[in-house]
Amino acid sequence: MSRPARVRKGSRAGGGQTRRGLLAMRGSWYRVLVAGLLLLLTLGRVEAAGDLKVVATIKPVHALLAGLMKDIGEPQLLLQGEQSPFDYQPDERARRLLQEADLVVWVGPELEKTLQPLIAGLPQRTRVIELLSQDDLKILPSRTDPTQRNPFFWMDDRNAIILLDLLTDALIAIDPERSHVYTRNRLRLLKPLKRIDREYEYGYRGLQTGTVAEYYDSLYYFEQAYALPVVGHVATTPWDPIETAKVLALRSRMREYKTGCLLLDRGMPAEGLELLTTDMALTQDTLDPLGLQLPAGEGLYVKLMRHNTDVIKGCLQADMDEAARARAQAEAAFIPDNEGIGGRFILTDQYGRLVTEENLRGHWSLVYFGYTHCPDVCPTSLATMTQALKRLGPKAERIQPYFVTVDPERDKASVIREYVKYFDPRLIGLTGTPAMIQRLADEFGVRFEKGEVDPEDPSLYAMDHSASLFLMAPDGRFVTKFAYGISARTLAEKLEEYVR
Question: Total structural domains in the chain?
Answer without folding.
Answer: 4
